[in-house]
Amino acid sequence: MNDEDAPLDAAVHAALFDAYPDALLLVGADGRIVLANPVAARLLGYESGDLVGLNVDALVPDAIRSRHADYRAGYAAHPRTRPMGNQMDLVARRRDGSQVMVEIALSPLVSQGRRYVVTAIRAIGDYPRVKQALQRARYSDVVARLGRLAVDTRDPKHLLQQVPVMTTEALDVEAAAVYLFDTTRTHFVVCGGVGLAPEEHEGARLPNEDGLLPGRVMRDNAAVLWTAADPTPGLKLRQGYLDAGIRSALAVPLSDRGRAVGVLAARSRDERRFGEDEQRFLESMGNLLASSLQRMHTEEQLSHSQRLESVGQLTGGIAHDFNNLLTVIQGNLQVMEDLPSVASDPHAQRLLAAATRASRRGAELTGKLLAFSRRQVLQPGQIDTSQMLHSLADMLRRTLDQHVRISVDAPPSCPPCVADPGQLESALLNIAINARDAMPAGGTLGFTARAVDGLPEALRAADGEGDAADPLGRYVAISVSDTGAGMPDEVKERAFEPFFTTKEAGRGTGLGLATVYGFVRQSHGAVALDSELGAGTTLTLYIPVADACDTHEEDAPAERGEIPPGLEVLLVEDDGEVRAVVRAFLDALGCRTTACSSAEEALRLLDAGGLGCRLLLTDIALGPGMRGIELARLVEQRLPGLAVILMSGFSSELLDANRDAPEHWELLKKPYGREELADAVARVIAAG
């Protein structure tokens, strides 16, 4: 026998025990710790060697110590190997009394006639899945913060300065920069950055060349990753970054509706810092930044009424990307929440809760953006008037001139009204901005709400229209008042006429109050105008109060129908991550799903035969090819009786589909969760 074949001696065994990456304890039959490696001491908060001689019960929280003693006695009677990964997450008590979530593996050992148990302990927080969940939660929270900032600020310079700061903090990298095209698109301008190289100081102009990172991104119109170990051919980093120790860089295009306006780049000293999650995060930040910059640019070129319409159009693109992102985030969170190991892990639950809160904030942001758009299906519902006015006032305080003071008198006791929430908020916003324009030197903008029985005498004249208000009905009177110059009588008489405006050319179309009037009348309400020269103006909207039967019907939703087991579903979605989430939802509902990335692929599968399908679930926008509505019509012709659900993150697409699609088709707005999908599937199957 040569030296290589000799048995390992005791010193080598001890070294292996100490070098093992998990915490290891060797416990005797009496429950006392015989050996402990350094990892165990660090994990449990002890000094090296202090664990030896300690009874293992000292590492068990007081609340479960008696149960642990019974379990240890049972294990001693019937020792067996219990590996990790069996979903038995436990709690260990550290020396200072704090607790740590752990997973434990047990292995019986007999040495020189004595019985021992080798205990391996691993902190749950060391698991890659938890680290990834924490990382994704942080990324989604930063994207939501950028969304809120994009809504709140009207200063593009502030946004351009904040995005690199938020990017470096989220990715934990040394440098980030925003490059925007100049008017010629032959050069970039460095518009904001953290950790910039001397050659790329803020305001510097860089040539649009594919040998530099921004130019390569524009040439490929795609994300570009550079690492020092595997440099992209023909691509070089500025010497200033190399001197700073930068070893990797990731850059993505800033695109708004397919048109690139610049580049967002991040750089790190860690050669392996950037992966798929980081690229998706950077792309989300870039798309949101590009859309926000385009919105700001358009707002500067448009008059007041045109600006409101423009914001609605621009937010459609933001909403589509953001809603797809939120669908992926919320869907994966729901799937993860159901995992047994996560359900029993308080630390993982806290991470999930943080990510869920961030995604909800993102959904709220998207809803606020879409509230500006007039291209929405009118969906009347009950509105908490007091809450809505306080929320609107908070938003206006951040956006209007600081010389305008805003007050709200809307008690919580004010009853709910019935109207389309988005349309009502848009109407009040329109009135508020008109009031702001009437107070160029500043003043007070006031909101009040109160319940009234019947309309004022001046509004009671019946006109025979089907949507006319009930003169004796109950209403919530919502008033918006200003301390501006007021209106002369001749202007008051024509204030609601379409195309009538007192503003200078190019600053108004005269459709603002006309639109408010039409919306309120469509909601079976009325509008009153009170104004005097030098005393300001008050506009009051009378919106019907929600009665008891309306409240009862909303509080008692219809019971969901059954989804047939093994329901065959054809899923068509061009976004791969959204497709994976929706498929997971359908699998959880017991469906048999065939997934396609395009309408053309779905039709090829149908032409090949052998594909059964009772339900088609398709996005409306499917990239450059055939749209979802056209696909649904073709598939319905081939498979009579087919159930169809159309989904989209574009409010305008859903509006068009609501107008053009057959009544038995279902519409589903992104983002949605598993329960919303289940409701839609049950409804459309029951309707068939």
- What is the assembly state of the chains in this entry? single chain
**What low-confidence regions span 5 or more consecutive residues with pLDDT below 50?**
301-312, 371-377, 461-466, 505-511, 549-558
Terminus-to-terminus distance: 80 Å
The total count of strands amounts to 23
**Count of DSSP-assigned helices:** 21
Strand ordering within the main sheet: 8-7-6-11-10-9
Q: Which structural class best describes the helix and strand composition?
A: alpha+beta
List keywords for this structure.
688 residues, Beta-Lactamase, Heat Shock Protein 90, six-stranded antiparallel beta sheet, five-stranded antiparallel beta sheet, 21 helices
How would you describe what is shown here?
- There is one protein chain.
- The chain folds into four domains: about 120 residues, Beta-Lactamase (2-Layer Sandwich); about 240 residues, GAF domain (Beta-Lactamase), CATH 3.30.450; about 170 residues, 2-Layer Sandwich (Heat Shock Protein 90); about 120 residues, Response regulator (Rossmann fold, 3-Layer(aba) Sandwich).
- The protein is about 40% helix and about 20% strand.
- A six-stranded antiparallel sheet has the order 8-7-6-11-10-9, sandwiched between helices. The protein has a five-stranded antiparallel sheet with strand order 2-1-5-4-3.
- Strand 10 and strand 11 form a beta hairpin.
- The chain is globular.
- It starts with 9 loop residues before the first helix and ends with a helix.
- About 5% of the residues have low confidence.
Question: Secondary structure elements and their pairing?
Answer:
Blueprint: H1 10-19, E1 23-28, E2 33-36, H2 38-44, H3 65-77, E3 89-93, E4 99-111, E5 114-123, H4 128-152, H5 156-171, E6 175-181, E7 187-194, E8 205-207, H6 213-220, E9 224-227, H7 239-243, E10 248-256, E11 259-268, H8 276-301, H9 304-337, H10 340-343, H11 346-370, E12 381-383, H12 385-399, E13 404-409, E14 417-419, H13 421-437, E15 443-453, E16 474-482, H14 489-494, H15 512-522, E17 526-532, E18 536-544, H16 548-555, E19 568-572, H17 576-588, E20 592-596, H18 599-608, E21 615-619, H19 628-638, E22 643-648, H20 651-660, E23 666-669, H21 674-687
Parallel strand pairs: 13-15, 19-20, 19-21, 21-22, 22-23
Antiparallel strand pairs: 1-2, 1-5, 3-4, 4-5, 6-7, 6-11, 7-8, 9-10, 10-11, 12-14, 15-16, 16-18, 17-18
